[in-house]
Amino acid sequence: MGPDKNLIERWRTTEVLLIGGSAGSFKILFQIVKCLPPNLDKIVIIVIHRKRNFLSEIEKLFAEHSNMKLREVQDKDVLKKNTIYIAPANYHTLIEKEGYFSLDVSEAVWYSKPSIDVTFESAAEIYEKQCMAILLSGANHDGAAGMLKLRNNGAVTIAQHPMDAEMDEMPAAAIKIGAAEYVLRTDEIFNFLHT
Fold first, then answer.
1. CA distances from 38 to 34, 41, 57, 66 (A)
2. 3-class secondary structure, 83
């Protein structure tokens, strides 16, 4: 199902935008970061699978091209609007009801730490219908269960169309279990984020 007036209206009233991605998602994530306006008035949280113990330049690259303040999540960081947060490697990123992040060192989920599922499930409990989640390209099923919990709690859930994803397994898994309320082509995702 493509974007409609209801999706656009719900996007305007959400407080949090969650984006999860893995293999093949870097390009679209980079474009999303570039296109978001500085006065978005939302909290943006990106969870991207990263190699264990591998020093990443992703934050630096994204920050140089972002119109919003961008930072890697630190334990106990308070969530603020008009900021893009990137989940750090080797930790799971959770959101506490008091409005701050906590970092968890428990076992990897779907061989991944950070896990998209962990962050999505955490956000589902706190933000419910005030949240929108987008699941992008990836080579495993991480994010599908978390997205289903988000949808069941009233959040807007979007999967990248598998035909547009470099690795279609992750969005396809979410679609298969009914976690994605919307399945959008890449250009449709950019179009509604600009509204």
1. 10, 8, 22, 8
2. strand
Distance CA 179, CA 38 (A): 30
Q: Quick check: 150 and 141 in contact, CB under 8 A?
A: no
Domains of the chain and CATH, by start = 5-113+137-193 (3.40.50.180)
pLDDT of residue 194: 77
Contact 93, 114 (CB under 8 A): yes
Cβ atoms of 190 and 15 within 8 Å: the answer is no
Question: What residues contact 28, with CB distance under 8 A and at least 6 apart?
Answer: 21, 136, 137, 160, 186, 189
Which tokens is 4 given? Answer: 């409609």
* pLDDT computed for residue 70 by the predictor: 93
Contact at 8 Å (CB) between 17 and 25? no
pLDDT at 183: 96
Residues labelled as active-site residues: 22, 49, 142
pLDDT in tens, 105-115: 989 898 889 99
Q: What is the pLDDT of residue 49?
A: 87
Is 15 in contact with 129 (CB distance < 8 Å)?
A: no
Instruction: Please calculate the CA angle 194-23-137 and round it to the nearest 5 degrees.
Output: 45
pTM of the model: 0.94
Pair 175, 148: CB distance under 8 Å: no
Comparison of pLDDT for 88 and 65, the residue scoring more: 88
Strand, helix or coil at 65?
Answer: coil
